[in-house]
Design a protein that fits this description.
about 40% helix, alpha/beta, binds zinc ion, 8 helices, two-stranded parallel ribbon, globular
């Protein structure tokens, strides 16, 4: 799915650039990163942005004073009686790579910004042959200190298998076990998750709710909708192929329309 969207982004970049020159949309968007500063020749999906890219992107966010929200802030803004800023971002990471802790977090911490990282609790069984499964990740115990600092941990399944392909019992186990494992390590409730591979459908939403989660993040681009489904909050992925201009356009909503290419 990622490959398909990357291709679409490349092919339609010119269209998006033209469109974004004509209009700028407001709204809060959740940015999705995986790795930062981990150089790998095999990273054909562009999952790892360079350290320089990340610093430039954060500098620009700071320069234009985009409000950076925590997940708590986002949820409070979406609650009845709450309010979201007219424009803003939430900074999220998937998978719990070491590089996010070593390269991205110091930058964010210096800016005083929160972030969230969604971490799978078990070995990546389904991805064992995928190149990213060989990238170094922090242990759950190592995430505890970062969680306390404001790099909040959320769930990302146990095995990182796509949830839509599982039996009802396996689906429930992925959700409940990931939540319970994180809660026992962190010593606090865990109510947020991102769906591995962005894979979500109606039965997965229902099982996620039943497993005790109240906020779920997809990999479908778009702005956060007040009154929308809290278990299907969109995110826009930032990749190694993004120029600073591409990033700015993503934050401004010029790529929101790519959601039409995302089935899950
Ligand atoms: Zn993942």
């Amino acid at each position: 799915m990622k490959r398909r969207v990357l291709t679409v982004i490349k092919r339609t970049g010119a269209v998006a650039r033209t469109w974004s020159g004509l209009a700028m949309t407001s709204g809060v968007r959740v940015l999705l990163y995986h790795s930062v500063g981990f150089q790998s020749r095999e990273d054909r999906l562009g999952l790892s942005v360079s350290s320089a890219q990340f610093r430039d992107q954060m500098s620009w966010l700071a320069d234009v004073q985009v409000p950076v929200l925590s997940v708590e802030g986002l949820v409070a803004g979406l609650a009845e009686g709450g309010a979201l800023p007219g424009w803003g971002v939430v900074i999220s990471f998937d998978d719990g790579y070491l590089s996010a802790a070593e390269e991205a977090w110091p930058v964010l911490k210096a800016l005083g910004w929160p972030a969230v990282c969604f971490v799978s609790t078990g070995p990546k069984e389904s991805d064992s042959k995928a190149y990213w499964s060989r990238w170094p990740r922090l242990s759950l115990e190592e995430w505890v200190a970062l969680d306390a600092e404001g790099f909040t941990v959320g769930a990302h399944g146990v095995s990182h298998r796509p949830l839509t392909g599982l039996s009802a019992s396996a689906l429930r186990a992925e959700l409940v076990e990931s939540r319970q494992t994180l809660e026992s390590v962190l010593g606090r409730p865990v109510r947020w998750l991102s769906y591995p591979h962005g894979s979500v459908n109606g039965p997965v939403l229902q099982a996620t709710r039943e497993a005790g989660f109240n906020v779920g993040f997809t990999s479908r681009p778009g702005k956060v909708a007040v009154g929308g489904e809290l278990l299907a909050i969109p995110r826009i992925e930032v990749t190694a192929e993004d120029t600073l201009g591409d990033f700015q356009r993503k934050v401004r909503g010029a790529y929101d329309w790519l959601k039409v290419f995302k089935k899950s």
